[in-house]
Amino acid sequence: MKFNVLTIFPEILAGALKESILGKAVDKGIIELNLVDTREYAQDKHRMVDDYPYGGGPGMVMKPEPIFLAAESLETQHDIPLILLSPQGEVFNQELARELSEKDELVIICGRYEGVDERIIEGLNAREVSIGDYVITGGEFAALVIIDAVSRLIPGVLGDDRSCEDESFTTGLLEYPHYTRPASFRKLDVPDVLISGNHGRINRWRKERSLERTLKKRPDLLEKADLTEEDLEFLKSLGYEPESEK
Ligand code: ADE
Question: Over the stretch 188-233, which tens digit does the pLDDT of each residue have?
Fold first, then answer.
């Protein structure tokens, strides 16, 4: 998977993506980063990438020309997704991460300042994506979040590809609690069932904890989760009332 990122701060991404799991994935050639400094495509001698908004108002707006030229400089096929990071976009989630992880290539444009000239969205047919309902100083950190969430779904990036099979959100539920050694720590014990070696019981225990946690912390997820009759009965025993039965 190749990530083409258009930014005026390529070093923010270059530094973060050198480390840890993603750094290894880059070294192994499973992911490729093409960081494009849009300032290099600025058209005037001061290399301006932003300007005052027409109509007045606070803040600066990113100019269209550098971003158009940078996007056009990429040697990409026509149908690769072009994402513009913006707090106004559709909210990024695991489903979108999975959808994007199936592509060979992505273009990600990082906005800055008050926003970007509207013609960038229209003219480049950009899909606006937000990482959540809050405003950050620019798209670079949002790009890192998306690159991380997408990359770890690509086979070979995680040490064990099963790591992302039953984790939170993939199943539509939050994940069950995890424990490692020691079995007893400061009088806090690992649940007996996990030490029992009985995988049938362990699986059921994990499923129940996962259902219980989702009900407690993110009940909104239950409406969309793929629940069996047994799951539903268990949730009802904890006081859950499906919307359809209210
Ligand atoms: N730029 C500023 N805030 C953002 C957000 N929430 N998501 C994506 N890009 C942004």
Answer: 999 999 999 999 999 999 999 999 999 999 999 999 999 999 999 9
Q: What would the pLDDT profile of 88-147 be if each residue is shown by its tens digit? A: 999 999 999 999 999 999 999 999 888 999 999 999 999 999 999 999 999 999 999 999
Q: Within this chain, do residues 10 and 100 fall inside the same structural domain, yes or no?
A: yes
CA 91 / ligand 1 centre spacing (Å): 10
The closest of 89, 91, 94, 36 to 66, measured between CA atoms, is 36
Q: 39, 47 in Cβ contact below 8 A?
A: yes
In a shared domain, residues 101 and 42: yes
How far is Cα 101 from Cα 78, in angstroms, rounded to an integer?
18
Going by alpha carbons, the residue nearest to atom 7 of ligand 1 is 130
Query: For ligand 1, what atom is nearest to the CA of residue 135?
Result: 3
pTM of the model as a whole: 0.93
User: Quick one: 196 and 102 in the same domain?
Assistant: no
What is the distance in A from the centroid of ligand 1 to the CA of 134?
7
Distance between Cα 140 and ligand 1 center (Å): 9
Q: Do residues 9 and 51 both lie within one domain? A: yes
**Number of structural domains in the chain:** 2
In a domain, 64, yes or no: yes
Distance between CA atoms of 208 and 213, rounded to whole angstroms?
9
Domain that holds residue 234: 184-245
